[in-house]
Specification:
Elements (H helix, E strand, L loop, with lengths): L3 E6 L5 H13 L3 E6 L1 H11 L3 H4 L5 E3 L17 E7 L1 H8 L6 H11 L3 E6 L6 H12 L3 E2 L13 H15 L15
Parallel strand pairs: 1-2, 1-4, 2-3, 4-5, 5-6
Helix pairs in contact: 1-7, 4-5, 4-6
The structure holds flavin mononucleotide (FMN).
Length: 188
């Protein structure tokens, strides 16, 4: 059976991270479920020129963030993993405090209570103490925080290569190891 992953894009800068993750999951044969928040749609349009409809072509199922009766609103909905990429500080706060006001926060709440893999890719700078405490809270509750902070040691030449250094970390925590992914093998 295909693995099922729920990908959520929220209104933090870095929509391209979500776009590239969706493309990879598609080629890896995952069953992809997608939620884009209202502000996720705005930043997607502003930063990449893409609409959420265009993004939907990478997903098998798409839900409105307001549809709290959709499958991912229940812990009984079978999912292997959930990724919020990029994750805004507002969505992070909702998840950290169990304040499930939309389908993204509710699905994350379910992932935590069902002890499923939940990966958050936050983007904000600088961080205030509330952001840092919220990252600690979700980590204590079982989520994996992978900050949207690209690495430079693989000497990226394009924005896509920079972005992929973050996306590859996410894929690796989903159990997908790409041959093309940069791997540090020690200094020669
Ligand atoms: C162009 C743009 C860039 C933004 N960048 C960030 C960001 O990097 N991090 C963040 O936490 N919020 C950012 N925001 C603010 C969020 O979009 C805002 O807090 C929103 O309420 C998040 O809602 P959501 O989590 O439901 O998508 C940005 C907003 C805009 C319009």
């Amino acid at each position: 059976m295909k693995k099922r992953v729920l990908v959520c894009l929220t209104g933090a800068s870095g929509a391209i991270y979500g776009v590239r993750l969706l493309r990879e999951l598609n080629t890896e044969g995952y069953e992809v479920h997608l939620i884009v928040s209202k502000w996720g749609e705005e930043t997607l349009k502003y930063e990449t020129g893409m609409t959420s409809e265009e993004l939907s072509k990478y997903a098998d199922f798409t839900y409105s963030e307001n549809d709290l009766a959709a499958g991912p609103a229940s812990g009984s909905f079978p999912l292997d993993a959930m990724v919020v990429i990029p994750c805004s500080m507002k969505t992070l706060a909702g998840i950290a405090h169990g304040y499930a006001e939309n389908l993204i926060a509710r699905a994350a709440d379910c992932s935590l209570k069902e002890r499923r893999r939940l990966i958050l890719v936050p983007r904000e700078s600088p961080l205030n103490l509330i952001h840092i405490r919220n990252m600690a809270a979700v980590t204590e509750a079982g989520a994996i925080v992978i900050p949207a902070s690209p690495a430079f040691w693989a000497k990226p030449k394009t924005i896509e290569e920079l972005v992929d250094s973050v996306v590859e970390r996410v894929l690796s925590h989903l159990g997908i190891s790409k041959d093309s992914a940069a791997k540090w093998t020690g200094e020669s």
